[in-house]
TrEMBL record:
Species of the source: uncultured Synechococcales cyanobacterium
InterPro entries linked to this entry: NAD(P)-bd_dom_sf, SDR_fam
The protein's name in its UniProt record: Short-chain dehydrogenase
GO molecular function, one term: oxidoreductase activity
Pfam families attached to this UniProt entry: adh_short
Domain of life (superkingdom): Bacteria
Keyword Oxidoreductase among record annotations: yes
Keywords: NADP, Oxidoreductase
Length: 133
């Protein structure tokens, strides 16, 4: 989490030179405080004690950064790549790396009418893509 803040601070001056600066914080569907309070949610029992809070903190940072940059061309969003087969989970995730990357690139390339300060997770909200916080 603090690494994300340091990386953002390191790159923000360079991003300001862009006509359409975009920041995509790679979060997780497991960051949702709302869904973690819903016993019917399929990941309700996945209470990873460090990982989930670190992503919830990243989501809060996304809100704060989007607010800080609200009067600029920046768009800052938190995006869940989805449960993906990687080393992180011994390749148990059902999604492909290609699909996960596409979910992130979508928000790295949104235009000036695009959202900012939002939490997107196709896994949590397949219909709208926007996850409850
Ligand atoms: N996989 C999923 O199902 C899933 C779901 C939701 C969210 N995510 C998020 O997606 C992101 C990528 O996850 P992943 O599944 O690809 O994990 P991964 O397979 O464990 O890969 C993590 C990558 O991050 C690099 N890394 C770790 N610490 C670093 C550091 N301090 N500086 C630079 N690079 C560092 C690692 O490099 P080395 O190999 O050199 O150590 C590795 O390439 C993470 O933020 C994860 O929380 C993943």
């Amino acid at each position: 989490m603090f690494g994300v803040v340091r990386v953002t601070q390191a790159f923000v001056d360079l991003l300001q030179k862009s006509l359409q600066p975009r920041i995509v914080n790679v979060t997780s569907g497991l960051a949702s405080l709302t869904l973690h309070n819903d016993p019917t949610w399929k990941y309700y029992n996945v209470k990873a004690a460090v990982y989930n809070p670190s992503k919830a903190a990243l989501n809060m940072y996304t809100i704060a950064l989007a607010y800080e940059l609200r009067d600029t061309p920046f768009k800052v969003n938190a995006v869940d790549p989805g449960f993906t087969a990687t080393d992180f989970n011994q390749h148990s995730g059902p999604g492909t790396v290609e699909d996960a990357a596409a979910r992130l690139v979508k928000y790295a390339t949104i235009d000036a009418d695009g959202p900012t300060g939002k939490f997107f997770s196709d896994d949590n909200s397949p219909e709208t893509g926007e996850s409850p916080w």
